[in-house]
Design brief:
By secondary structure, the protein is an alpha+beta fold. The protein has 2 domains: 65 residues, 434 Repressor (Amino-terminal Domain) (Orthogonal Bundle), CATH 1.10.260.40; 166 residues, Beta-Lactamase (2-Layer Sandwich), CATH 3.30.450. Helices cover 41% and strands 11% of the residues. The protein contains 12 helices and 5 strands. A 5-stranded antiparallel sheet has the order 2-1-5-4-3. A hairpin with a 5-residue loop joins strand 1 and strand 2. Helix 2 packs across helix 4.
């Protein structure tokens, strides 16, 4: 990777001028110009400051350092590394605490790391090869053998999924093939687009939240996302509680260790 070009592209992507970046990084516009033209070679600390000022993800910060000829600054640990044991404990606690509502943890590419037992209601009827740790949750959502046949508002929900896949071009191209054309809706939009999913407990109306580890300095940890599904109406809340009551005795294991699925109490 050519460092001056990489820096210019990332600055332009964030719609920052050279002066904007210079002020954020505590340097001058002239020096940034010299770096981007290849006339000056920044030190390692300056590259880190520029990457931080651009608010790049940790993976991209490491890539920028490598392009400048420096070693990465941020480690990338395996999730089963002992150093991330507190993270696994925290994930397990959060997944348990979200019951009786479904929740899962995915990595940067949307591959499932773990899920609580309530997520089983979401995946019922899906092909086995699309379900479970290591499988891709975006493919599960939109594949014809996954959730798609049960999603009542597939076109709207698919657009919500596809807008999150800008960094996954091949997957986005694949999933786009499964998505119907979106027709403008005359109905009120409400406060959020719900997932309307048919289930053995009737139609579930769910909204999603995404949680990340905000202060992470490990690439793996920074890229984890906890996706929690919440009921958008009282009927869905009642259905999820009823389903959890039946599932409660199925499994008492609770360790979050890839590639096993986190289970409920």
């Amino acid at each position: 990777m050519d460092f001056p070009r990489a820096l210019r592209e990332r600055r332009a992507r964030r719609h920052l001028s050279q002066l904007d970046l210079a002020l954020r990084a505590g340097t001058t516009q002239r020096y940034v110009s010299f770096i981007e033209s290849g006339r000056s070679v920044p030190g390692r600390n300056m590259v880190v400051r520029l990457a931080e000022s651009l608010e790049l993800p940790l993976r991209e910060r490491n890539e920028l350092l490598l392009a400048a000829g420096y070693a990465p600054a941020y480690p990338e640990s395996s999730l089963d590394d002992p150093v991330l044991a507190p993270v696994r404990t925290a994930i397990d606690h959060i997944l348990r605490g979200h019951l009786p509502y479904p929740a899962l943890v995915v990595d940067r590419g949307g591959d499932m790391i773990a899920a609580n037992t309530a997520f089983d209601l979401i995946t019922e009827g899906a092909a086995a090869e699309l379900v479970g740790p290591g499988t891709n949750v975006y493919r599960l959502a939109l594949h014809p053998d996954g959730l798609a046949p049960r999603i009542r508002n597939l076109a709207e929900w698919a657009r919500h999924i596809l807008t999150r896949l800008g960094h996954l071009e091949e997957l986005r191209a694949e999933l786009t093939e499964y998505v119907p054309e979106l027709e403008p809706s005359a109905a009120p939009l409400g406060f959020a687009v719900p997932l309307r999913l048919q289930s053995s407990y009737g139609e579930l109306r769910l909204m999603t939240t995404v949680t990340t580890f905000a202060t992470a300095v490990d690439v793996t940890l920074a890229e984890l996302k906890l996706e929690a599904l919440l009921p958008a109406d009282p009927a869905t809340a009642e259905a999820l509680s009823a389903a959890a009551g039946l599932m409660a005795s199925a499994d008492t294991a609770a360790t979050v260790r890839p590639p096993r699925t986190c289970s409920g109490p």
